[in-house]
Write a sequence for this structure.
């Protein structure tokens, strides 16, 4: 049986992040990808110029269409720009008893543009945290979700992860790629263990879509039956290679995308 994953996220018209990055990642990793579009963005390598929220009932209809027909093995959740969208997705996950859910609590794009309405900042905590197998905030998102300063080291990252576990998350992968350090350190924290994943920082400005790509790669691993820890390890390796190959592409005049198909072309 084919491994199937669905991405529930926003569309990036520039093709480097969001739904487009997720589907590229699924395909590169041998997983069939379906999609539920939650928002349309006018976006390119230089930034986000407009956002149009998809109505909640259309989000729900897309979820029902996918799950009523496809045997979905894993779910990646990305951009949810409003509390109504978050509620529609939470209800849809419950309605279809979705398993192997990975939540990337996208709040700010690589360009610095805000993707989540300020009044909805804590809606993911209330409505979504208990449902996913794991959540994947970066340093800035973890700080915002825990109302604490930006983590500066492993101990502070671990403390923020534990706060998120206390808020209902089942597992937390805090991504340290935005830190100004020699190595990009990610911590996977569960109630029973802490695993540390490292990779050398790569000198490139072409990092558009890294967070989307990592969470999609984790979902792809789960869809293929891997454990969460193995899926994270494989996803970290895939994203690191995609960043390392990013400069082989010449896309746009801003922060270009990672090379999702680095192993193929």
């Amino acid at each position: 049986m084919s491994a199937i994953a669905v991405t529930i996220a926003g569309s990036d018209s520039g093709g480097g992040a969001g739904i487009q990055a997720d589907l590229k990642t699924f395909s590169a990793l041998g997983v069939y990808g379906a999609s539920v579009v939650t928002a349309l963005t006018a976006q390119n390598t230089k930034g986000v110029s407009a956002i149009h929220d998809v109505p909640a009932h259309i989000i729900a209809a897309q979820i029902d269409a996918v799950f009523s027909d496809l045997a979905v093995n894993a779910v990646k959740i990305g951009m949810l720009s409003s509390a109504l969208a978050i509620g529609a997705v939470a209800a849809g996950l419950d309605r279809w008893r979705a398993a192997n859910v990975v939540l990337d609590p996208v709040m700010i794009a690589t360009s610095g543009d805000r993707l989540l309405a300020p009044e909805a900042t804590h809606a993911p905590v209330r409505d979504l945290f208990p449902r996913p197998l794991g959540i994947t905030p970066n340093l800035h998102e973890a700080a915002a979700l825990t109302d604490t300063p930006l983590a500066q080291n492993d101990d502070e990252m671990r403390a923020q992860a534990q706060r998120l576990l206390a808020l209902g998350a089942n597992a937390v992968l805090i991504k340290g790629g935005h830190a100004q350090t020699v190595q990009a350190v990610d911590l996977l924290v569960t109630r029973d263990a802490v695993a540390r994943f490292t990779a050398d920082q790569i000198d490139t400005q072409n990092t558009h879509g890294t967070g989307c790509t990592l969470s999609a790669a984790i979902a792809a691993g789960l869809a293929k039956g891997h454990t969460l820890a193995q899926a994270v390890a494989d996803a970290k390796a895939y994203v690191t290679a995609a960043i390392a190959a990013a400069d082989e592409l010449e896309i746009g005049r801003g922060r270009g995308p990672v090379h999702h198909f680095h192993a193929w072309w």
